[in-house]
Design a protein that fits this description.
about 75% helix, Non-ribosomal Peptide Synthetase Peptidyl Carrier Protein, Chain A, mainly alpha, elongated
Length: about 130
């Protein structure tokens, strides 16, 4: 049973998954840093960076009970952060990768031009085969 478990762990897809999780976590930190240190301060030029303190009080707390508040500001902040992260991923990862894939496709679709001497030799070979 131990040998079987070792075989399972050493299969390529388990190792690939582990590497993907670690790289995904590290990449998440990079994207979070870009959003927190680059995009959010730029958005702060146009207004408040954090709307989480804004809300609508539905009921005042009585007798030590807390207020009942609709925290629309926290939702707005989460939406802005999501859009910022999505934009960072799109423009820094997806768009460049799509451009590379497009370039590769264009390179594969265009047939390679065969030199004239090679084409002639290939034609002679085909003629000799057909005899």
């Amino acid at each position: 049973m131990l040998k079987e478990f070792k075989t399972f762990l050493m299969r390529g897809n388990v190792i690939d998954l582990a590497v993907a999780v670690v790289l995904g976590a590290a990449f998440g930190l990079v994207i979070a840093s870009i959003v927190d240190n680059l995009i959010t301060p730029i958005l702060g030029l146009f207004g408040d960076q954090d709307f989480s303190q804004y809300g609508i009080t539905l009921k005042e707390g009585e007798g030590g009970n807390p207020d009942i508040v609709l925290g629309w500001g926290a939702i707005l902040t989460a939406i802005i952060n999501f859009i910022a992260v999505a934009a960072a991923i799109f423009f820094l990862v997806v768009k460049p990768v799509n451009m590379l894939v497009e370039r590769r496709k264009r390179g594969e679709e265009e047939p390679e031009e065969v030199p004239a001497d090679i084409a002639l030799l290939t034609e002679i070979r085909d003629l000799l085969r057909s005899r």
